[in-house]
Known about the structure:
By secondary structure, the chain is an alpha/beta fold. The chain has helices spanning 18-40, 54-61, 69-79, 106-109, 113-116, 163-166, 172-190, 202-220, 222-229, 266-269, 279-291, 297-306, 314-324, 326-332, 404-418, 430-439, 474-492, 501-516, 535-540, 556-561, 563-582, and strands spanning 49-51, 87-89, 246-247, 253-254, 272-274, 309-311, 356-371, 376-388, 394-399, 423-426, 442-445, 461-464, 604-607, 619-627, 633-642, 645-652, 656-660. The protein folds into five domains: 18-132, no CATH class; 163-324, no CATH class; 347-516, Nucleotidyltransferase, domain 5 (2-Layer Sandwich); 535-586, no CATH class; 604-660.
Amino acid sequence: MSFLLGKAKTAPQHGHTIPRLELCAAVLATELGRTINEQLDIPPENMHFYSDSMVVLGYLHNRVRRFYVYVGNRVDRILSFTKPTQWSHIPSESNPADEGTRCVNACDLQESMWLNGTSVLTEERSTSETERYPLVQPTHDLEVRPEVQVLKTSSSPSLCIGAERIKHFSTWKSLVRGIAYLKSLAIIRKNPSVGRTRQVTPELIEKSRIFILKDVQEQVYNEELRCLRESKAVPSNSSISSLTPILDQDGILRVGGRLNRSNFSLEERNPIIVPGKHHVARLLIEHFHAEVRHQGRHLTEGAVRSGGYWVTGAKRLISSILQACMKCHRLRGKFSHQQMADLPPDRLEPCAPFTYVGVDVFGPWSITSRRTRGGTALSKRWAVLFTCLVTRAVHIEVIEEMSSSSFINALRRFFSIRGPVREFRSDNGTNFVGSTEDMGFQTINVDEPKFANYMLENSTVWRFNPPHASHMGGAWERMIGTARRILDSMLIDMKGRALTHEILTTLMAEVVAIMNSRPIAPVSSDPQDATVLSPSVLLTQKTSCPSSVCCEHLNQKDLYRHQWKCVQVLAEEFWKKWRREYLLNLQTRTKWQKPQRNLQEGDIVLMKDRSVARMEWPLAVVNRVFISEDKLVRKVEIRVVRDGKTTYFVRPVTEVVFLNSPE
């Protein structure tokens, strides 16, 4: 190794970066190589170049990115004489060219690397040099152009519509008419003489229908069509092999079947096969479903078959379409419901009779109020039924009119006979609301969150059920039906006799006696247990079998010795049987046994309105939900817009039909 030629240049003061100066040094090395090649006839491929700049080596080995003009021109000059494999990296401390950029004493020049080189130059070079010199931070290098991504789109001509294009249509009529318009435009383009106002004719509609069905079959049943065109049998693993498919004169796949000898029309004998999983099948079923005015699955499927189409898997597809049809939901959608709630505490705690009371009014009855010269004057009477929610005893008061004042008088008579009441439950009738306001009672709406645990011990509390929620007051609503049946049987025997206020009051007293003597638990067939658990046992303290009464802390002698102990024994016997025989029978849920989806704010529902037909029931939006203690929603506040006015209603979930959710 010996020194042959050396050259250095002074760098300009401004406008150059370190990578640019390193690149200029590489250009200078290439020029020295050209000089040696010209003067000494040394081939360029026998030369090897070194640089201590990884940036420059990355420029020379780059095959991906493009450079700006300054760097690009110099890289081209270098690569026009050398190859990237002829360039290698050398550490800066071992680079002889660095001596030309530093001050060196004359006495040290003879022993410097500038003249003697370094041992790195004599080492064997690796064969994988090109893999070690990538671009250094190309995203931040200002000399490298930004990477531009170019996308190539290739398209091939096709005569098919394509499933994706068909999905843009929502109805069968719009799809057929759209294809017909395209065909019409194509005819005008080919034959301008036909005019630009060509109308869509029935013939064009029929051709468009055939074109769509053929396209759908080509997409799904391509193999079956190929076999039939080649006069081969349909593959046995085909989903339509049982239909014995055939091709008609238009090339459409039809059902072969076993009715070919019948006198039916072609559409009925050999209907067109439509794949049930294609969007066209859904459009066809929705079309015929609207044709039969949104009737059930059976009529819709019959209309599809009569129209000349055989949709594979039609029953399942029709069921899914009917379940999503909003108009069908409005016509036949089931009312919402929720799991039957737990019994309230006021029905599970032993207490004095009529401490917790359910109230309702029923009637009216026409009675003879006074006699006149021309006959009799008639008036109406109603009855207020008070039901003890614990003992199931009843009390009935007759009122003269459906007003708050008349109901208050009935309450006063009830308080005088049965004593104070801790809590009333009733529906949201106007007579009840007015009575509570006049008497100063505190009113509570059921399930209101801020009033859920609010109770008063020494004053009367009135708890209202939501409007139209008679099932929430079944404990007293059912008693009204029983009272009506008993009273009707009594009035049968009074045909021909005038019903007066006195007779009606007497009959109501007898009705109360009969209802209070009814068993509230199954009657035992054990002869040793002859006592029947009824409300009258606790109210009248009378029983026909006193010898069967027992108590843990009272013996049989106390029953005859002290009258007050007799009363206590009967009361404790009642509550003992009440817990064992009556209360346990309330454990099961006879209906609404599973939790359902909770209605949520924003849900669209149909509000039941008994005054109009179902199709005129208003649409409503759930504005607020009332969550019970078990995290289930049984009452909602809905918003209805009528004639531009917004009205809010509180309804139980059993009075609304769920239609759609914003989610």
